[in-house]
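# nightly structure sweep
# worker-07 picked up a monomer target from the shared queue
# config: single-sequence mode, recycle default, output format = structure tokens
# input follows
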Amino acid sequence: MLNPTKIQKTDDSSSYNHQNTLLELFNMQVRLRPNHVAVEIGSSSLTYQELNKKSDDLAQVLMGLGVEKDTIVSILLPRSLEMIVGIFGILKAGGAYVPLGIKDGIERIDYILEDTKAPVLITQKRYLPEVSGISVLDIDLNSDEWPKILSSASRETQDSPLYYPVAIDPNSLAYVIYTSGTTGKPKGVMIEHRNLYSYLMNFRPTIDSNDRTLQSMSTTCDSSVAEIFPTLCSGATLVFWEKDLSATIKKEKITYTNLTPSMAELVNPQDCSSLKKLIIGGEKLKIEIVKKFPETVEIYNGYGPTEATVDATVTKMTISSNIHIGDTLPHVKIYVVGKEGQICQNGGPGELWIGGEGVARGYLNRPELTRDKFIKNPFGEGRLYKSGDLVCWKNNDNLDFLGRIDRQVKVRGFRVELDGLEKLISTYPGVTGVHVVLQGHN
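# output follows
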């Protein structure tokens, strides 16, 4: 008889209330620790009570602009207090945030704004792109104009049936993050509150109110989700990385952070005396990175596509570990599936199909691609996401990552479709042929 752990891993997500959202978790921390610092950058900070009040105020402004349940609101801000206020304000208004990168080209920003049809863009004047047909909200907590905006919004929305709090249910949209696409156009992954809440309830390693988390990842990458929400739903402090990564870890006494292997290579282990827990993800982990950090640091290798809500598997690594992508989180189902749609047995290689509470709603405005990648589970209940990752079971309990079944690669933690790059380059005048390859980490 086959050992079932070699065939699939099933979820165990029955130990929490599936009707809750992350806002209940955050509100609990506001009640328990109103004066504890929630967010910190340099000499500026917000307590949980202040973050709650300012995001409430912003939610009121957004509702006055027509934001309601499932409205997509774009946000173009650097790492800042305003960025966190913006994200929570959008969620409290019932909307879903779509992050835009400060360093993104105007073509990508224009494409995402057009694809989402976002009615509101939260930004600051110095980052403002040329846009039309959209309400632009300039959020600067230190400006003289911000109190005037709040005062105006209060008069307009105080009698409105949409006045905060909005009834947000588990199936409400929480965020849309854009990943690369084979056509050269990025695709928006729609994550619901139930996906995010399940991830938070099964998050590991654990974070508590004594932790100081480094916010180092771009919000356009879903690794930022693993920094922002577990921290602020646990009563910990979120600290922004401003300039030097390694120096920030030392100076700010960071205890928890989430890095790509490329970023981890930049960290001086002598700066990590305060560091307790480190999650590595986004790229293939090398054992040399594990060995460089002090033994007092718990290092975890995390794996998961955006479509499965950040992480599907997480494993604790040691200097004697063989590199693998680990075992599943409790709310996740995974199957290793062969070319004929059969479950691979006895360690055979196959495509990783992911199920459970983390599986996204689908791709925004891409129904055909959604039907192709998100399928009814042929082996049980629910839906599965076909990841395109080639894996096999290792020693019954852990997964080995073998590569891709297509030409997708990872560059600094971001997914890049080589086919999409070739199609984009081929549109330029004078290009008669193109082939893109990845050479090492370059």
